[in-house]
Amino acid sequence: MTGKNSITGNSKFKMPGRILLCSPYTSILNQAAYDAWHSNDNGPKLFSHSKIEEVIGNLKKTDDETIRFDYEKTFKGKNIPNDSELVIHTTYNQILNISYEELATQDYITIDECHSLSDGIDYRATLIAEVISYLIEFVRRKVDATTKIIFMSGTPNVETHVVQDLLQEYELDHLYQRVIVNKKYKNQPIVNIRHLDTNNGEQRSNAVIEQIHKYYKRGRKVVHIFNYKEKMDKYVREIQSKLDADIKVGLFYSGSKGVCRDNILKGKFGDFDVILTTTYFINGININKDGITEDDFLAGESSKQEYGVVIDLGKTHTKINASDAVQAINRFRNRKCYATIFFPKLFRTDHYNTNRKFDYNYAGKIILGINKYNNHLLSVNKNLEAVTKEDKEVEEDIAFLDKIRNNPSQINYYDIRNYQKKTEKIRDIINRLEKKKSIYEDWLCSLDGYHFMTTDAGFLSVIFEGHINEPLPEMTEDQLALENQVIRNFLDNDDALLFLSNQMDIEKRFLVRASNAIKDPFSTKIGNFEAVDIKNNKFIFEGDFHVSHESAINKLIRNHLQFTYWYDPDKVLEILRYLINPEVKLLPITTNSYLKKITSYLKSFKVFKSFNCKDGMNYLIFLDYLADKNLGIIKKISPTYISYTNTNTDVDFKEIWALMQKQKTSYLIDHSHNSIKDYLKEHTKNDELMKKMDLEKLDNQLHRLSIYKPLKYAKTGDIKSYENITIPRILRSDKMILALNDYEYDVEEPENCTYDESKIEFESVWKRLSIRLETYLNSELRANHIHLNTIYNTLKDFIDEKNFQKLSNYINTLLSDSKKNALPVVTEVIQKLKKDLKTINTFLLTACKAVDYNTYKNLKHKIPMKFITQTLFCEEDFQLATINKRFKANLKKINQYDVYNSLFKNSKKYKNSTRLSVHTPKGRVTINSANHEAAKITRPAYLVLDDVGKLLYADFSAEETCSFLCSYAYSNNSFEMKDGSIPTKIYNKGIYNPSTFLNDYFANSSDSKTISNYNIKVYNVNLLDYRKFADAKKRKKK
């Protein structure tokens, strides 16, 4: 059935009484709000969702226009009007904000498009389970209420079984009733189910585009459900370039803006020929006003426009089941709709059993929807036992752990118990839904399922074999390059810059849309901006550019507005232009997209400013504190980023941090005034669970605060890459500094521990190690075993230097050296010392506590945190203009004779032969003063420079140059990469292997494979000059 929502919410047709009408998506509410605004239905209505004010702003033609219905952004803490005929339009989640008492005042609670409770289990399971649980609990608690709950759908799914089962368990199943309404229709949609026998993505896309074209040429408006927002702009260009540049393509998805979105909420496609959409379109939207006016519609006239729906099930991002397809077709209320469903390749090769003609299991799944959960129902073998999807256990956690750490005195027993019961109920409902859904989900996507469901919906289903036609013209243009050029052109346009600079004035905010003057989908032209409208207090400017760039330009405008809040307009423009400069790396990220670079620039600052990642921030401060303690934490400071690389795998710093969190929890509970502190101790006693929760939370926060790359191991078990944390540094502003102190911080004081205490503990660790070394390898023992002297002296040097990393590495080297292990006493002594190394953990734990307490003290008393300003922001005197010069060796500063000296020392080439001749394009040429051609001949030499441009080595051989650099970096400063990472340091392995370096790193432009602290540059050596130098050098030696 269709039109359920419209009837339920219309005061002329609705059932008498108060109605709470709940929808899964805001788009349904927004269209209902549009209808209510323009209809002559004057019944009492209330609309509620978080962005309803924006919707009203779009509906109002003038600021003083009367709002035609009541509205609320949320029902949390709000009283609902008591009008006896009130209709409330809201979303599923708002049900949870309405008390049971308020729900009991409703005559009807309608859950519209209730099949979404099953369909949405993959991406919002918790919310769905909470809504079902809340409604069941309402029925159980308010048994005397006369409220009727209606689960309403044109394509009901397994949620109806789950609700019935739950009511039965509460012995309330007598309240459950199933009502089926059959409707007869004048028009019958036709669904062409077409098998497309290919897995080739380009062929499938061409088939879809050709089908869109067929519908378009027949005068049908087409919707293609294309569940991939990020690729939609490219797909617009593809349709127009392969078919016709005059085809007008619109986009509709959650969060979309513009004319297309407005048209659909008005119930029409309008001027758009093709709409690319996501599953956001398939529920509750009415398309019924194309070709007619609002007055015509209110007078009962029906639209005569015909439509087409195209779905390709062969793409992973367009997995639309039969129920969703029926819903999509039913959006067109006149039912003048054809649909084409492209099915995946049915018969593919069975790689596990090549004797078969095709993969039986896969074909059975695609054709009949057979899987292990429904095999017993669909198989001819009736003796098969049913396989049931196993229940997932309630994921164990410690309820209110953060609240206990912040303010243990404010936690009560009932909050914890209620949370635990609620969690169990939610998990139970999710399990029930998933268990039921597992039986049907593959069938609903199968050929059989599609044919049955579309026929059952009253459609004509036609199954046929499709053909692969001649390929359409390929799009050879680089799509990202097109977008980047449009962004650059926009920032170079004087009119656009004027609008951008003015938009800090709230009365001059604006959005941009395409004027349709530019038809070429590959055009990057942009200009001729003109104000054409004002909506929601924003000017609408039209500009000449291709429509496919509309969303990108408006993203740029929104980002620019954020930038201008923190920086003055000139500085913003300077930052934006450096961000889109391909020759400059202002951010340590690998994307080539200008828009992504711009969007990412303020990301870290926003997270730091909110202080809701305090644990991750403390961990970074902890690493920073350890960076100068020779513990294996390597800190790299670059003008535009700071990175920390943990090269010490013998110490688990995160384990220490988690232990501090555990001890902090115990301390705060012990010192709280809560009468249930004993219960809280019992509640938080699971150390392993607490550690698991804390480490998961820490990793999540590190990903938000930085570019985080965890420790990785290769398949061989060797370390592939060390843990690396890179924090982008941004230009500072006074506003940003002030914002970092604008927060509320109300937590209990943790254990008092200072940095001075940690320093005392640090010295104590080394003192103990020194004493242990003297005990284990005393002078008498060394006198009896001479081989111990070298070991003792090396160990003592490292202990005196307080260099834990070198000490640990040396001990590990000794233990892995079979020859040294065979010597008397060595293994026994070294094993003892290795065990003693763990005493460093006492210092690390104290340091952790000191960091935590210092952060508490700073936040509590609003003391600016130097770590944040020094880490998050570039240096105060940093100038963007200098960024091009960083990390580049200036060869003009290299003395030619320094190069010649190094070449003479390291290479035999071109210096030893009596008569030097070389190959040239013209043949062999003798290098001597008499030959004028010789004076022009050069050969490349490879120079190794350090990060300040000092010459370290020169050679005519790239292989020998790489060999030298690998050896040098291993013995001196380790390799550091441009992305801030530090590769694993193993002699003659990985990057330290000359052959690997030459093949994988020498000429690689990727930041993860380009070294930043050394440079290899090509220097063209004039052979005649060099030969004269070499000959003179040889004569001197004689």
From TrEMBL:
Top-level taxon: Bacteria
SUPFAM superfamilies assigned: P-loop containing nucleoside triphosphate hydrolases (SSF52540)
InterPro entries reported in the protein's UniProt record: P-loop_NTPase
Protein name: Uncharacterized protein
Source organism of the structure: Polaribacter pectinis
